[in-house]
Amino acid sequence: MAHNVIMPKTGMAMEEGTLIRWLKQVGEKVAKGEAIAVIETDKVTMELESDYDGTLLAIVHRDGDVVKATNTIAWVGAPGEKVPEEAVGETAAATPAAAISSSGTASVASAEPGPAMTFTDGKVPATPAARTAAAAAGIPLFSVAGSGPGGAVRVRDLPRATAAKATPLARKVAEMNRVDLVGVEGSGSGGRIRRADVDARVGIPTARHVPAAAAAASSLQGSGSSIPFSGMRRAIAEKMLRSHQQIPAVTLVTRADVTELADLRARMNGSGASKVSYTDFILRAAATALREHPLINSIIQDDRIVLRPEVDIGIAVALEAGLIVPIIRGADCLSVRQISDAAHVLAERARAGALVPDEYTGGTFTITNLGMYGITEFTPLINVPESAILGVGAIEEAFRTGPSGAIEGRKVMSLCLTHDHRHIDGAPAAAFLGRIRALLENCWALVG
């Protein structure tokens, strides 16, 4: 029997997802575990894998559709197998049984079909094979003259076969603005095209190291334009509003002398091994302090305060579409270098849109660092349902009493702890923050 493919529910709070684009088209064979579509949830852009072997019989929702979680988006089964009538009615891409060969593979006729197998990209008719090839090469169908029936674009009509590497968001923005990705210079890892690169081609000014939402917002001033308040951006807005409205939050600020930490970091990075950052040391210090101060590592659940046994720390990572918090599991059991390696991998996976739900849900504490932007102090919002978040500011030069007792120039870093005052009073929060400061100021204990 035919199996339905659903929009996955990747978290308890997820209500809907967006189909960015299909990687498989009707009539094509599908293997279990093979990526068949790219979807955007409220947290991340990810590839959707098939749970079944077979043939893609019908596509219920198209590129750009917003679909409720657990709703059917496609059907997979044996070649020519019937699917529910409502599925066929909702898509013009249902595959005629005659278009599939007895071997279960699409015939030459079905790979480059007539009008019965064409469907549109906006107003552009194209064959499924042409759509797949065009998406892989970053070629907008509107720019191609089709030779098929009714002007439908066929594979042989595509002018180039060179794949343009681009993020799903960049592809979506390119399609909206009719930008040909082939020839666009990518500023991402490995030359990958990012949203900012497409904006630059369109003529929208953006800042390289600012998340795209902020860059897009600045570009809208006086332009009469707008950007969709949906997907990840909407989820972030709802979560932050809930945090602000429901949690009586208090922010405590202290300043840590990190002069010795700077020297230690320089020595470790001069050893030829992988580089470590200040955030890696802060993660290690916070993990140690959380183990010693379990109340900070708790959540409010119904009418109880639940102390979390795990120390799973999230790191805020800025993406083009917003913000995500990948989590380092068991951070209290890792060395500084192990934390550094894990953080690097997670950050790269986050920017590539490759995180799986287990990598960004279920954290117990969050750290956000705005020091690289020159921000010295700020009041971070708690990442619900957690109870606290640590904001890290820029390192500044300040005159302080040095180890010798003389006044000298020292390196000082601001640490800003926001905590839930419903169950964490000022004194335990201050003790926790003071412990982090002490660990950073006596940094050799972090690598011992």
Report the principal-axis shape.
Answer: elongated
CATH class of the largest domain: Alpha Beta
CATH level-4 homologous superfamily of the largest domain: Chloramphenicol acetyltransferase-like domain
How big a fraction of the residues is strand?
15-25%
Trace the largest sheet across and list its strands. 11-20-19-18-14-17
- Percent of residues in helices: 25-40%
Number of DSSP E strands: 20
- Cα Rg: 26 Å
Number of helices: 11
How many domains would you count in the coordinates?
Answer: 3
Spans with pLDDT under 50 lasting ≥5 residues?
A: 88-123, 204-220
The main β sheet shows up as: 6 strands, mixed
Average pLDDT taken over every residue: 78
Explain what the structure shows:
The chain is an alpha+beta fold and about 450 residues long. The chain has 3 domains: about 5-160, OB fold (Dihydrolipoamide Acetyltransferase, E2P), CATH 2.40.50; about 175-225, no CATH class; about 230-445, 2-Layer Sandwich (Chloramphenicol Acetyltransferase), CATH 3.30.559. Helices cover about 25% and strands about 25% of the residues. It contains 11 helices and 20 strands. The protein has a 6-stranded mixed sheet, with helices on one face. The chain has a 4-stranded antiparallel sheet with strand order 1-8-6-3, with no helix packed on it.
Features:
448 residues; alpha+beta; OB fold (Dihydrolipoamide Acetyltransferase, E2P); Chloramphenicol Acetyltransferase; four-stranded antiparallel sheet
